Amino acid sequence: MSKLRVAGPDLPAALKQVIDYRKSGLSLNHVVGCPLDCGYCVRHLFANYEMKKPHLVVGDTEAIEALVGHWAFQPDTTPIQIFNRATDPFLPMVKDHLFTCLEDLDQRGLTNPVLVITRWHVEPADVARLEHLRNLKLTILVTWSGIENDKIEPVDSGIAERSLEVLSRHAVRTKSILYWRPIIAGLNDTDLHFARARGLAALADATVFTGLFFRDEIRAHFKAIGVPDLYSDVARRKIFPVGVERRVLEAFTGIPLFRKTSCGVAFAHGISDYNGHYGVQEICDICPILQVGLCAAAHLKPPMPRVEALAATAGLDPGSISIDDRRIEVADSNEQQRYFMQHSLNYQVHDRKHPHHLGRHGRAELGWT
Ligand code: SF4
């Protein structure tokens, strides 16, 4: 019996839909609401930022059945994320649901990668329970930014630091990632921040770094609480200026560091990247040589009939596909359709409308032009 309140009928429609498909996998979100108040939270985009207490949308059994019955779910293949949209999975009471879902999936013998993102307390007893899983490839991504401005991020970064320490001491089959984000130019990109991040990287199996997701709704929130604009403009993609990236790379010379979440996950588990980023070769310039070998061996240009069949399953027009050594290109697609194909083939799938720019690593134009 859940100790969480049940979400009311006024929950925004986007949040009533407990499964969506994102780049890091099929995302299960049947608990929504969070007290942690990170100012840049994506809940601003779902009109859910004011829900400070976690609420249950549907029960765990119903949620898991919806996940494994989803048209895009493939046993042992599709990456899964749990509670990565509208709550923190390690909050009290929320973590009961996290453990129930993980154990249910694991008991089905599924070996899918599972990503769990937190900035909250991960206790030794939590890790002990996670270590009992036998099949899922589980990664805990611990978000840390070192931001000290309480209006932007009220949660003490020391909590994430302790969680990384606990994982480092107690986890064996459970992999951990220092999820260093959001790095914001002029705010948390000093040499001191970089030195602290280097220290934390030693506690994790890999480090992934990224920038700020800065949309109109997030900008408006900061304006309302008196935080000056973090960047001069909003963007569809994450903002990460090239100059900051150069300094991060310099600071991490010799330390395993990844631009893409799935690359960090792949390295932590000793497998190839399930998003096929290897096709976008310039992403791999910072990757450890053994990992490059793994991804290179797995990067096989898929035959057109297989691609067309997957496109048809996803509801895309098979007639509009082109394939080259870097990527598959489709037309008039949504993210769900592209990620289904990408994760099935471990090969990048792009839409003609959103071409990738060489060397920009899928980030916003701001700071690169
Ligand atoms: S080789 Fe490239 S695709 Fe593979 S993990 Fe490294 S950066 Fe990612």
Automatic annotation (TrEMBL):
It comes from the Bacteria. This is Radical SAM protein. The lineage of its organism: Bacteria, Pseudomonadati, Pseudomonadota, Alphaproteobacteria, Hyphomicrobiales.
